[in-house]
Amino acid sequence: MSTDSSPSLGAEENGDTPEDELLVNAHGLYDSSWGEDDWRKLATTLVRDGVVSWREITTTVLGELNPPQVGTSIASASGLTFGFKDNHQLAHPGESFMPYVMQWFYARAGRCIDCGTRLDLQADHVQGREFFENKRDADVLDNLELRCRRHNVAKRRSHIERAGRTVLPAQQALMWILLEIRPFTKLDLARLCRIYGMTMAGIRFDEAWAMAVWMQREGQYRIASPEDAYDVVRWLHNGALTRRFANGDAPPMGSELIASDVLGENRVRFVASLGDNKRTLRYYDLAVETLPFAYELGDRDVTDIAIWPIQTGGVPLAPKGLKLRSSIIVGAINDSPTIAFSDGHMLTAPPANGFRGTIIRAGRREVERMRLASSPDELL
Ligand SMILES: [Zn+2]
Fold first, then answer.
1. C-alpha 126 to ligand 1 mean position (Å)
2. What residues sit around ligand 1, an ion, with C-beta below 5 angstroms?
3. Tens digits of residue pLDDT in 191-233
4. Is residue 319 within 8 Å of residue 233, measured between CB atoms?
5. Would you say residue 292 has pLDDT above 60?
6. Which has the minimum average pLDDT: 1-10, 212-221, 284-293, 328-337?
């Protein structure tokens, strides 16, 4: 039987679906506050840019409007798993089941009982099978309703607390982020997806990124490249570093430029500390091309992008939240810079550890005017 149109089968039998893969407390980005005008604008842009045609948009909607095949799916539901036919025979001995199914079907409103959409409807249990001692007792027409695929999934016991959300299902949100926010790197796409609340494995972002690669090839998308030059921007309120395509403009309000016109392969090296704690310093060495761009994120801070995406939602990308003590931008060469303290003490920076940084024990050193340089000579 088709799992798409069967009573709760798609959700219960197949385990997690893409719609599932959002954090319980996910609140999306500014798409959740969009009105019809915003959606029309996005659709119009996609057509104007040749990403899709009106014909494709309309025929896709027509396909989603096609009512679920509840008659055939219920009638052919496995008698071993589902009790529909047996329960009907008990209630109406000798009578054919299908007329009852169709009578029930026509009596529906033809809309999801949760959100009212006519798209992608499925027959779904009102009281889930998991609430019945004998699951087969749930399989009667009186216990079925029409729900969209998303709310069919959201109704499951493990997801009841998520059902009221207005954010897009993950699969659609991925493309909304890609085509509306238009991240310039795959890493930024992943960061935005984590901000949105997606918990899916990173490979899903890699796959979604293919759309950006394909569109760039046809001049419809901009991906940051090794040939581009960048400005590195530091945001004053939380120390986050972001980059932008070098353009000679003043830095955005509330930020300062710490480097202009540098290549993605350049390294940004910095020492930061936790607030005013001067004893524990951390040293970082990151390629400029790993820094996030800043994007308009609705009511969220543009520096919310400054996270390092991990499965459970991402951790801040230093120096966000840390006090930047000193920083330099150097070439792609893999040398170890020198750190000089104001009392004249110098030490060689420890090997860097990517986004986690490495701890430097400053002890009682005076770090207020600490400096970082490519070689000791620069500090003399
Ligand atoms: Zn719905």
1. 13
2. 112, 114-115, 148, 151
3. 999 999 888 888 999 999 999 999 999 999 999 998 899 999 9
4. no
5. yes
6. 1-10
- pTM, two decimals, is 0.84
Q: Tokens 């801040």 map to which residue?
A: 316
Distance 168 CA to ligand 1 centre (A): 11
Can you name the residues that pair with 267 across neighbouring β-strands?
287, 330
Of 249, 305, 242, nearest in space to 268 by CA: 242
Tell how far the Cα of 147 is from the centroid of ligand 1, in angstroms: 5
pLDDT in tens, 231-285: 999 999 999 999 999 999 999 999 999 999 999 999 888 888 887 766 778 889 8
* Residue whose structure tokens are 């299908």: 98
**What's the 111 CA to ligand 1 centre distance in angstroms?**
8
Q: DSSP string spanning 238-307?
A: T--EEEEE---PPPPTTEEEEEEEEETTSEEEEEEESTT--SEEEEEEEEGGGSPBP--BTTB-GGGG-E
The closest of 290, 368, 357 to 325, measured between CA atoms, is 368
Cα–Cα distance for residue pair 210/188, rounded to 1 Å: 14
- How many Å lie between the centroid of ligand 1 and the Cα of residue 115? 4
Rounded distance from Cα 155 to ligand 1 centre (Å)? 10
Asked if residue 157 has pLDDT above 60, the reply is no
